[in-house]
TrEMBL record:
Superkingdom of the source species: Eukaryota
Name of this protein: Nodulin-like domain-containing protein
Keyword terms, alphabetized: Membrane, Transmembrane, Transmembrane helix
GO CC annotation, single: membrane
Record localization: Membrane
């Protein structure tokens, strides 16, 4: 009897362990870790100067690399189509392979381990490495949204928030491992996200959705963890600027950041235990029969006829239904969504907003260098010449970046407007606007105007481009015209988004999650029955 009881308890423990590592909450924890390692593109401004100095690039060439970086990070149609035809574990394997290959080749080039690559090769390397971020988005973010459809808004915000923190997280980890060496940061970006993707390759997958009373509470706890992590990193960053850190201090900082990063694991175990206990209570009164429950013959026939009719309608409609889309929130086909006015507004708004934001972020290093000691004089000149209060100048500067910030904080409403059936592909189609906006604004406008001002300064000194290795512009005029153009573009983008708001306000005024409730109820019954069958097997 003791042996039987011991074997039964061991079996129960194994079942609980399997439930934890295969459950929705552990899947969410793993997804957040992957997303926290998927923001390497935001660190381009940190190591771009190494690329510029080592390889002798001018600003236009560096901005061209930056555009290919944004192109890779946002052109995810291939990852979306791949995710709909292959399992998630395969998508994550592609993430690991592309991430390591792209950034490792850049590191080899910057450290002169290999012969200096051509510009198109460097653009290809960073495009491949950055595109892995898109596969990570598709593999983890899209899967999380499908597994938590009633909390998709909070889920998207949290996932994007962890991506935003990833740059700062990488910085602390590379300080702990490599010290203050920005070239080694490129190596860390290559191997660390690839390792995380491989560790959790089988844990992230689409599951049957179910109700959980603590779902909102857990997401709030994740928000709290993200906030604590952000505050810790901010404090560490300030301290590291003010006080010299030893390698042991950097190591302690990295461990503290990693501990907070992995703390959601304990939340996953707690919630899976709650689900386990609740399911045991629900299945206790269920009486099982020897035969598995089957649908009545008429109901089964009806289901088969419905599926057959649905398949025939989908194949017969073809292109004729492209301009006859369903209601907002229902499952659009890919072409129906792409040819809709709502998608056009989403695309145009993100082209302006995120295009400006990416352009500003990619030029931060050069902006600081160009302004130098002149930065404090800009508001002073405006104040003295036009009598405009300094706080008003500050508010206008904040307004400039507001559109891009809001688009990052409230990501594309693709799943809400066009359904979840083709969400992986449509989500990535919407992101195409970002690299396109970055190319037009960053390379064709900001980069060209910067180089034009830099060449003027060389000519004033009686020098030519061939006489200097690095083309650098100094002074407030370097970015004056280009960022005035960005301000106008941001304003236009905000108007476009307001048009989308007016078109969709009635839809958002209703219950956009109603369609998922029946599915959740059916899944709960099925899981309760399955759990009862398993318990009967253990008892017998």
């Amino acid at each position: 009897m003791a042996t039987t009881a011991s074997g039964s308890s061991g079996y129960v423990c194994c079942r609980f362990f399997l439930q934890v590592i295969t459950g929705r909450w552990f899947m969410m924890f793993a997804s957040f870790l992957i997303m926290a390692c998927a923001g390497a593109t935001y660190l381009f401004g940190v190591y771009s100067k190494d690329i510029k100095l080592t390889l002798g690039y001018d600003q236009s060439t560096l901005n061209l690399m930056s555009t290919f970086k944004d192109l890779g990070a946002n052109v995810g149609v291939l990852s979306g189509l791949l995710a709909e035809e292959t399992p998630t574990w395969f998508v994550l394997l592609v993430v690991a392979l592309m991430n390591f290959t792209g950034y490792f080749m850049i590191w080899l080039a910057v450290t002169k381990t290999i012969a200096t690559p051509k510009v198109w090769q460097m653009c290809a390397y960073i495009c491949i490495g950055a595109n892995s971020q898109n596969f990570a988005n598709t593999g983890s973010l899209v899967t999380c949204v499908k597994n938590f459809p009633q909390s998709r808004g909070m889920m998207l915000g949290l996932m994007k928030g962890f991506v935003g923190l990833s740059g700062a997280i990488f910085t602390q980890i590379y300080y702990a491992i490599y010290g203050n060496d920005s070239k080694s940061l490129i190596l860390l970006i290559g191997w660390f996200p690839a390792a995380i993707s491989l560790v959790f390759v089988y844990n992230i997958r689409a599951m049957k959705i179910s109700a959980h009373p603590n779902e909102t509470k857990v997401l709030h706890e994740y928000l709290g963890i993200a906030t604590v992590l952000a505050l810790l990193i901010m404090a560490l960053t300030i301290a590291q600027k003010k006080v010299p850190f030893s390698h042991a201090a950097y190591l302690f900082s990295g461990v503290a950041v990693c501990f907070i990063m992995f703390s959601p694991f304990f939340i996953a175990v707690r919630e899976e235990f709650y689900t386990w206990r609740n399911r045991e209570q629900l299945t206790a009164p269920i009486r099982l029969v020897d035969e598995a429950p089957t649908l009545p013959e008429t109901e089964m026939k009806s289901e088969i006829e419905y599926e057959s009719m649905e398949t025939k309608e989908a194949s017969a409609s073809g292109c004729s239904s492209i301009f006859k889309p369903p209601k907002r929130g229902e499952d659009f086909s890919i072409l129906q969504a792409l040819f809709s006015i709502d998608m056009f507004l989403v695309f145009l708004g993100t082209f302006c907003g995120l295009g400006c934001t990416l352009t500003a972020a990619d030029n931060l290093g050069q902006i600081g260098e160009s302004l130098g000691v002149f930065a404090g004089f800009v508001s002073e000149i405006i104040l003295l010449k036009y009598k405009i209060p300094r706080p008003l100048i500050m508010s206008l500067v904040f307004l400039l970046a507001s559109v891009g910030d809001l688009l990052i904080a409230f990501p594309w409403p693709v799943s809400e407007l066009f359904g979840l059936k083709y969400y992986a592909t449509l989500f990535n189609c919407a992101q195409l606007s970002s690299p396109l906006g970055s190319f037009v604004l960053n390379v064709r406008i900001v980069g060209k105007l910067y180089d034009k001002e830099a060449l003027k300064q060389l000519a004033a000194k009686g020098m030519t481009r061939s006489m200097v290795k690095e083309l650098t512009c100094i002074g407030k005029q370097c970015y004056r015209l280009s960022f005035s153009i960005l301000a106008a573009t941001n304003t236009f983008g905000s108007i476009v988004i307001l048009v989308l708001v007016l078109r969709t306000h009635k839809y958002y005024g209703g219950d956009i999650y109603e369609r998922f409730r029946d599915e959740i109820a059916e899944n709960e019954k099925e899981m309760a029955l399955k759990s009862a069958q398993e318990m009967q097997m253990v008892e017998s």
